[in-house]
Design goal:
The chain has 294 residues and is of the alpha+beta class. Helix content is 23%, strand content 25%. The structure holds N-oxalylglycine and manganese (II) ion. Residues 105, 109, 111, 260 line the site of manganese (II) ion.
Length: 294
């Protein structure tokens, strides 16, 4: 039987209705994956998954990431959580080594672009504690944002490459950082990716994130201005879905064709999301037949 789905906005996000036992059995996994790529983000309500169930759903949809860890210059490890379940919380007691980076989630980003040649395919979140205020998660469709650009602009962007870095992602979210904090961020590797990704499917998306540090082919001013212009374009209302969380929800996003961010919530909040990450399945590839701009 086909899945029951509702579009949450015209350009991004669908809600799926599926019984918990069917989701756990993986019987609709292929359809859910296709819908995820077609719609950028999927929401399923009233599931109340525990960690093991979250892992089961993750494994039905892709290659659950377990145990990748990177050590920064401070010796602390950026680890992927317990058997692939990461606790997303700003409380250092909940997640001692990761919490100090998670404030960066408040700015538009894709997961993992600064660390990885092949960034995650998808990320899944389910709440264990909600914030009292705010804390909605927003998703922006970077396929749609690219598709709507005028063709000459698209052609220009298709020739560009961008360095992604952790300092670029974190500094705008914490401009009053200390020199020591900045040095830790800067101790992580960086990656260069094409600005436009032509996926194996042939479709093209913008590879955009606050982690974009510099467009390598442009001078500093032109790079800065173009990155700001693209970010403003790609996060316009028509490309964005805002998810207001309820306990029991599961949200899954296609990390290869969307950006996301969390809206501000109260200081000292107990907000705690459990996250599974699905490993990437294809490298970020430049457009195959770039037209030479005269
Ligand atoms: C993440 C993330 C947003 C949120 O876990 O990668 O960006 O709403 N989370 O917690
Ligand atoms: Mn994220």
């Amino acid at each position: 039987m086909a899945l029951e789905t509702i579009d949450l906005t015209p350009r991004i996000a669908s809600q799926v209705r599926i019984a918990k036992r069917d989701l756990l059995a993986g019987s609709h996994a292929g359809e859910i994956r296709d819908l995820l790529v077609a719609r950028g983000a999927i929401v399923i309500r009233d599931l109340f998954l525990d960690d093991e169930e979250l892992r089961t759903v993750a494994r039905s949809l892709g290659d659950l990431r377990v145990g990748t860890a990177r050590r920064g210059s401070d010796g602390k490890v950026l680890a992927e959580g317990d058997g692939g379940v990461l606790k997303v919380s700003l409380d250092p007691k909940v997640n001692p080594d990761y919490a100090r980076f998670l404030f960066g989630n408040q700015l538009w980003h894709m997961d993992g672009t600064y660390l990885e040649t092949i960034p995650p395919f998808a990320t899944m979140l389910t709440p264990f504690a909600l914030s009292k205020e705010g804390g909605d998660t927003q998703f922006a469709n970077t396929y749609a944002a690219f598709e709507d650009l005028p063709r000459p602009m698209q052609r220009r962007l298709e020739t560009l490459t961008v360095r992604h870095s952790l300092p670029a992602a974190l500094f705008p979210a914490k401009r009053d950082c200390t020199a020591e904090e900045f040095a830790v961020w800067a101790s992580y590797p960086t990656q260069v990716h094409p600005l436009v990704w032509q996926h194996r499917s042939g479709r093209k998306s913008l590879v955009l994130s606050t982690a974009c540090a510099r467009i390598l082919e442009l001078d500093a001013t032109a790079s800065h201005d173009l990155l700001l212009e693209l970010m403003a374009h790609a996060t316009q209302e028509q490309y964005v879905y805002s998810h207001k969380w309820r306990m029991g929800d599961l949200a899954i996003w296609d990390n290869t064709g969307t950006m996301h961010r969390v809206l501000p919530f109260e200081e000292g909040s107990a907000r705690e999301m459990h996250r599974c990450t699905l490993n990437g399945e294809e490298p970020i590839a430049a457009v195959r037949d770039v037209e030479v701009v005269a």
